[in-house]
TrEMBL record:
Lineage, highest ranks first: Bacteria, Pseudomonadati, Pseudomonadota, Gammaproteobacteria, Enterobacterales
EC numbers, comma separated: 1.1.1.79, 1.1.1.81
Name used for this protein in its record: Glyoxylate/hydroxypyruvate reductase A
The organism of origin for this protein: Serratia aquatilis
Principal EC category: oxidoreductase
Key words, A-Z: Cytoplasm, NAD, NADP, Oxidoreductase
Active-site residues annotated for this sequence: 228, 276
The D-isomer specific 2-hydroxyacid dehydrogenase NAD-binding domain, residue ranges: 106-278
Subcellular location: Cytoplasm
Main location: cytoplasm
Role this protein plays: Catalyzes the NADPH-dependent reduction of glyoxylate and hydroxypyruvate into glycolate and glycerate, respectively.
Reaction(s) catalysed (UniProt annotation): glycolate + NADP(+) = glyoxylate + NADPH + H(+); (R)-glycerate + NAD(+) = 3-hydroxypyruvate + NADH + H(+); (R)-glycerate + NADP(+) = 3-hydroxypyruvate + NADPH + H(+)
Presence of the UniProt keyword Cytoplasm in the record: yes
Length: 313
């Protein structure tokens, strides 16, 4: 069994050593330009076109993240980046679920307890208790009900919040109201006070966080974008913040990363930013899952996290 590895940021030797410990029967190497030697599996993030093109002998391509939008976009731009018929597998959880729960919960509690407003008051040396929000008037809506969205919904329910989810198809999550399809999007938005975006990045979801969507939320709603920067129409958010329809926003992802220095988000008093750190790949857990999936494929079984190329997730 031959495995090739490529990641522009991860230390290759850590992965070669870790995967060798988990799959001692495999020959594992870091891919370099010009390497066209046989490979059964590829572990990648933003792989160069030449790495995978024409490798029809591959049994699986493993994207080293929960999202596969980057590699699918590469395929659209340079057909052949993904060899036809070769399964694409993404990471599921691998420690990202707890991280995403922590991040989302921190944002929800910050806005629910109005700590963001108290911080602004502190800067003005203004001592003024604010009327607290009430849970029965603080419905949280989550766009996306997959592994991450569903887990965040369950965690927020534990804290007593009214939670609803919207996704392409109905999902059954205990104590969470389910909405699905374009025909139910407006009903989902109506009455939502805080919106968390955890949608997959597909051509259909690009720009979904726009002026029309924001206008259907409760006045003074909050936005938390933890999915992809391409989901957000940035100028629409800025306008809705200035109009007060959106009270505040927390953004972990952006169209351009790192965010350019002149961007209006940097200094906006109602925008909180983090540098795409809501949930990062944890190598040990990721290697465990990839190894298990490789053994599943070798045994003729379907791997966890198999991507539907047409849907994009």
């Amino acid at each position: 069994m031959n495995i090739i590895f490529y990641h522009p940021f991860f230390e290759a030797q850590d992965w070669l050593t870790g995967m060798a410990q988990r799959l001692p029967q495999a020959n594992i190497r870091a891919w370099e330009p010009g390497d066209d030697r046989p490979a059964d599996y590829a572990l990648v993030w933003h792989p160069p076109h030449e790495m995978l093109a024409n490798r029809h002998d591959l049994k699986g391509v493993f994207a080293l993240g929960a999202g596969v939008d980057a590699i699918l976009q590469q395929e659209r731009q340079q057909p052949g980046t993904l060899p036809a018929g070769v399964p694409l597998v993404r990471l599921e959880d691998t420690g990202m679920v707890q991280q995403m729960q922590e991040y989302a919960l921190a944002c929800v509690l910050r806005y629910f307890r109005r700590f963001d407003e108290y911080q602004l008051q502190q800067q003005k040396q203004n001592w003024l208790p604010l009327e607290p929000h009430q849970q029965d008037n603080f419905t949280i809506g989550i766009l996306g009900a997959g592994v991450l969205g569903g887990s965040v919904a369950q965690k927020l329910v534990e804290f007593g919040f009214n939670v609803r989810c919207w996704s392409r198809s109905h999902k059954q999550i205990a104590d969470v109201q389910s909405f699905a399809g374009k025909e139910q999007l407006m009903a989902f938005l109506n009455g939502t006070r805080l919106l968390i975006n955890l949608l997959p990045h597909t051509p259909e979801t690009v720009g979904i966080l726009n002026r029309q969507l924001f206008a259907n939320l409760m006045p003074g709603a909050y936005l938390v974008n933890l999915a992809r920067g391409a989901h957000l129409v940035e100028v629409d958010l800025l306008q809705m913040l200035d109009q007060g329809q959106i009270a505040a926003a927390t953004l972990d992802v952006f169209v351009r990363e790192p965010l350019p220095q002149p961007h209006a988000f940097w200094l906006h008093p109602r925008v909180t930013m983090t540098p795409h750190i809501a949930a990062v790949t944890l190598p040990a857990q990721a290697m465990d899952q990839v190894s298990t999936n490789i053994l599943a494929i070798e045994a003729g079984k379907s791997p966890a996290g198999l991507v539907d190329i047409q849907r994009g997730y």
